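Troubleshooting: if your tokenizer reports a length mismatch, compare your output against this known-good record of 529 residues.
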Amino acid sequence: MQELKLPRAQSLQEAGVSSAVLAKMMQRIINEKLEMHSIMVLRGGKVAYEQFRAPYQPWIPHVMFSVSKSVTATAVGFCVDEGLLKVTDCVADHLPELREHEADQAMLNKLTVHHLLNMSSGKEVNILADKTRKQWLRDFAEYKWKAAPGEEFQYSNENTYILSVLVQRVSGQCMVDYLTPRLFAPLGIPRPFWENDGCGAEAGGWGLYLTTESFAKIAMCYAQQGVFANRQIIPAEWVKQLSAVQMPTPAGDAPHDINGYGYCVWHSTIPGCYRMDGMFSQFALIFPEYDACIVTTGGEIYSHKIRDAMFDLLLDLFTQTDTQPVPIPQLRAYPPLHYSARCPSLEEKLDGRTIFFPALMQQTVKVAGFPLSVMPFAVFFMSADKAGGIDKVKFRFEQDAVKFSWSEGSERNTVLCGMDGKARNCKITLGGIEFIVSCSAAWEGANKLHVRIRPLNSVSERRMVFVFSANGKRVRMLPRSSPSLTHTSGYVAPMVATMVPNEMVGKLMADSLHYLTALLEPLHIGFLR
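Known-good structure output:
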């Protein structure tokens, strides 16, 4: 099925969107160097404005991270509407295997679907748990209780994973199959990819991939009370329940996170406005009063900065009238590696030979449960099937590019990296997931080869520097990512600290993340054959 395109407005003015305000919004994002990949503004059922930051493209699905939660909650809504489930149902009644591993049966018996939807399950989970063990349901049961269900808001991916398993259990279908005739097909959304737990149930709280257009259709459907193309798609009563404040959120968090939580959506400081929200700045800001929404994809870990840039001007965007159109600033494309002089003598020595990295190095990197991959850490950190273990690297040099081949476990890939200042797009498969990647390479001096690979379905960019010995027989490979792991760990550390009851222990764990980043991206030393 091809993507059904939404109608486009002739102009921002026709759609009732202020170009002057949108220009200010985009200029702030550019000035602050925020990692936005795409933005789409919709009003009255039409796309008023869209922009993509090259090399990201409209037709490439982008990872949604926790926006997936809102889609999972939508699946629950269909189950409720069809009488398969009630929000008051005891979770263990549908998933009796939870009772086999739960120490506190009385607490488990209090846990309802409602508590999972509004993040008040009371379970204290480990955000760094190893998902490759593929026993997510058992892990949830074995997590300790921080509070009784319904007593305390605590955001958790695992709550939404349990909802995914519930949908599968009561409907007899995995969530993508269940949602296809109810949501995706009616909205003209091609069947999406959704990561699963290794046992057939979608991750629920993360792992969904959608194009910006598909994301916008879901947001617009909610902005129009569940209606799309004059047809009620999402049950109106569920739209009302999902978008209502179902749980207060703690004071002291980011300004846009303290206004209450619905069913897997956040309420904003602007009355009536709520959002679907995913890590690294995947957003849908839904404004039913103005029949409007804004969706974004991105790679900005400090996502509140993009939210601030939008919310500070959001009301004006739909209420201010332009005296004349104002041009909208354009996001600067992510540059490939710059063209540089070639190293023909070393290229001849390396061409077609294989670089091996010792098995001991691969095992050391796997200690933390996150083996080094050509995909940056952010891509696989919650996956059941992690890629990783870079080995058997081979270069084949061409006139204006180099073919870079490597193995990760049983998977082997080859990409073409432009060496003429122009990136090349290629397809690869890692961890069982297909990616479109933008690749470039360049020499620095006589023995240092830089390689950059950016997954256009996801966030971050993998940067690898290969340093060759004078005789070409030894190689050091230094992996890095952009945004850097140090930058990302600075964001994650406060969350880790708040998860530990003992303040001192929490601080020590948060501080240790700095050292963990070094373990996740260590220097690799290899040899050529």
